[in-house]
Amino acid sequence: MGRETVIGLVGKPSSGKSTTLNSLTDANAKVGAFPFTTIDPNKATGYLEVDCACSRVGQSHLCKPNYGYCRDGKRGVPIMLLDVAGLVPNAHLGRGLGNKFLGDLTEADCLIHIVDVSGTTDAEGKATRGYDPLQDIEWLQDEIFRWILGNLMEKWPSIVRRHIATKSTTAETLQAQLGGYSANSRIIYRTLDLIPHIAPLNEWDNDMIETVIKTFMQVKFPTVLSLNKMDHPDSDKNVSKIILKYPNSKIVLTSAITEVFLRKLANQNYIKYDSGTEFIDTIDDLGPDSGLKPLDEKVRNRIENIRDLVLYRFGSTGVIDLLKKAVELLDLVPVYPVKNIHNYTGGNGSNVFRDCLLVKRGSSVVSVGKKILGDVTIVSIEGLGGMKIGEEDTIDIGKNDVLSFKVISSH
Asked: What is the domain range of residue 392?
């Protein structure tokens, strides 16, 4: 199946990173087995919610995914999350778990930076008031930058000598130096394309090297900012400041602790809660026939506060949007391979759309086939309605995203 997409969660202590991770990994129901063969201690399976193809063809009642879940046409697609620990100032100097932290980062295709937007924790995560969370965002970017810059400048003269001696292209030399950060040639070419009128590598001064690294970081580590604890009274002014400073960033306002609390109540049958929305129903709303348990005064008051301060004000706890924004940054779309294009099954049984994977928008249909099936000869490809699809046709949401491959095994 090729390498999985990995989304890294970063954040200083007490920012709400663990709570956010819990809210992304708890699918709030029994789900299918995990598609990932090995899960390290710092890896977890999150669930990206998408509109499932089953609702398009009126088959939601038959949709039972092999992995993840589907509820009323909302599908939870498993995605690998990496819990990046050891985030403290001067990590690039090896402080704390610095080297491990920065090494782990390289595995991520995209970062979700959990920022305590209330300003009630300092740079080390200790309790305070009035801390400026802008510093956390700038500091994370600076740590990664200084780490890469330090590694490169240490051997820059010999890099240039080798570059000239081997008559390498700029892309080839950069690939050799930045490949250790899990950077493929596509990332290197995209980095160079974003820098207008770039001089030959052997003419780069310090300013140009820094520009290249900063551009490389944008391509290699696209980042969603999760402004957590959004319901704290001090958060509003900090949110405004961050949005002003980073107008082009993907920013999501979140209250991870609220999401975890509501899911816990829903699991215990005190409330009906539709995650990602503003709707909570209690026995007071739905009556005793709802089967919900009665609430004590303390919990009832807390739910009222959550409705007023979080859900009605912001529309949701924001957590569901984090993976959506990350996948938007990576430009991934869901694809549904089926054996039988006419009834959407996996070949046996009546359950539909058993599989779903995320691929880059604009990928050719044949490249998706190879990713799923490996080394086989693809004879023909069909889409919805049995329509023939060309190998080089491309994929988008709602376009060539339900596929059936006819193959001849090469064995």
From this structure: 331-409
| CB-CB contact of 345 with 353 (8 Å) | no
pLDDT value, residue 2: 47
- For residues 277, 283, 284, 287, the Cα torsion angle rounded to the nearest 10 degrees is 120
* H/E element, 142: helix 134-153
- Assess if residue 131 is contained within a domain: no
Cα separation, 77 vs 51, in Å, equals 10
CA–CA separation, 375 and 373 (whole Å): 7
Whether 345 and 309 share a structural domain: no
Predicted TM-score of the model (pTM): 0.90
Kindly report the CATH number assigned to the domain that includes residue 182: 1.10.8.470
Q: Specify the pLDDT at position 3.
A: 64
Contacts of 88 (CB under 8 A, 6+ apart): 12, 13, 95, 96, 98, 123, 124
Cα–Cα distance, 179 to 189 (Å, whole number): 13
Residue 134 maps to a domain: no
* Residue ranges of the chain with per-residue pLDDT less than 50: 1-2, 28-30
Please give the tally of structural domains in the chain.
3
Question: In sequence order, what are the residues at sequence separation of 6 or more whose Cβ sits closer than 8 angstroms to the Cβ of residue 248?
Answer: none
- φ, ψ dihedrals at 14, nearest 5°: 70, 10
Residue carrying the six token digits 């802008």:
134
Query: Which CA distances in Å does 238 have to 12, 126, 132, 245?
Result: 17, 18, 7, 11
